[in-house]
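Lab notes, practical 5.
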Amino acid sequence: MRKTILTLFLLNAILYTEAKDYNIADFGARADGVYLNTSIIQGAIDYITTHGGGRLIFPRGSYLTGSIYLKSNVILHLESDAVLLGSVNVFDYVKDPYIGWMSMIFALKQENIGITGKGMIDGRGFYTANNMVSNIHKGIFTDPLKLDRPNETNRPQNIYFRECENIIITGIMLKDPASWNQTYDQCRNIYVDSIRVDAKNYWNNDGIDIVDCSDVVIKNSFFDAADDVICFKSHDATKICENVVVDNCVGRSSANGLKFGTVSRGGFRNFKVTNLTIYDTYRSAITFAAVDGGIIENIVVDGVKSTNTGNVIYLRIGDRWSQNKVPYMKDIVIKNVYAEVPAGKPDAGYLYEGPVEDLPRNISPASIVGLPQHKIKNVILENITIVYPGGSNPNYAYRGLSKAELDSIPEMPAAYPEFSQFKELPAWGFYLRHAEDITFRNITLTAEKKEYRPAIVADDVKNIFFEKVEVQEPESKKKNQIFLHNSTRRKK
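Output from the prediction step:
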């Protein structure tokens, strides 16, 4: 992991020091936000890549554009108050035949590329997406329009890089995509530092998507997203996301904070995530989902502050699109976490809120849920404090502790993985099912109001270990807060 960081720091330095500067104005671009500069910007990129490479400088102003392709040895540098402004005409965008997506900025099989500076990429995606809806209704564009929105691939992202190597994205602001925001797919050596993301104005607006990439650093960045904040995916069963460092990032979402999946065909390996802050987030601060035959292993999450977030930790193995591959999740460490779960809807008031779903249920616990034939193994939870609202109402939703009641919780192997998918669960703090070698060390669980459920329930968990687990709940001095069913407890 240290080698990955050092390599990317050196890459960053080399790309900066060796870059020759070209001013986009010298190629005839207009910074009035009205003139469509697509062909001029593309011409400048093509010229620079064939003349030894360099930086294409965008001075202050608004540069209207449709789809452009970044080429090897070219960096787009947006100075302060410079804006790459997305056209709201959907026909100014390319749906790349190889990638199968629309984007403002593409790069395909290029190297030594980047976007730097203090300027902004503004996709104006709310208007573009709604213009697409209008074209679909008029029959000008064909799209199934499921859920009253165009398919994600038929709305432009701000950035989509595929099979590229040596990428730097630093300093910029990414705003208002029409679909996902920035996707790096099967790329190698990615360095993202000190970017700002405001992507909450339309459906599926993720903060950043890393798909089947290796040697990645994401640090010192802020994300405000309608969908997942920092999302790692694996679309190809023969590929994997690996050797990734995330540090000192802040995010808000009407979905999840840090997420592996949902698409998880290959898997995720060798991650270190440190100093992560998640707030006002509808779903989970941390979600790891191995539901499509992929693997998740050797993951460390160290240092999380999660406030006003609907769920804290959700680890899940499923069997959705596995195609006979055997998924597994093992060797996970989550430590030094402070979290507060609210009684109300955490993202209430944002433009695109998460849906009210999976009811009736009271507040869901953090959960580690495998399958009978695919157990989650070797998870260490250490130095974790979670404050819950408590006050669950058994007359609204109830789940008891008898064998029949625990067995009635559905397995749901093919369901979309969400912390709330099982509806009411029998614990308010942690629920574990189909797991092995789980360690709880120095854990404090607080319910602010009296609960009808125990704090921790383990069902079909082998070798669960508790050390310094403290439960705080009003009027519960004699209550058994740890309930084990068909499970074994390890002493050391």
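Observations recorded by the TA: DSSP finds four helices and 31 strands in the chain. Helices lie at 2-17, 38-49, 125-137, 403-407.
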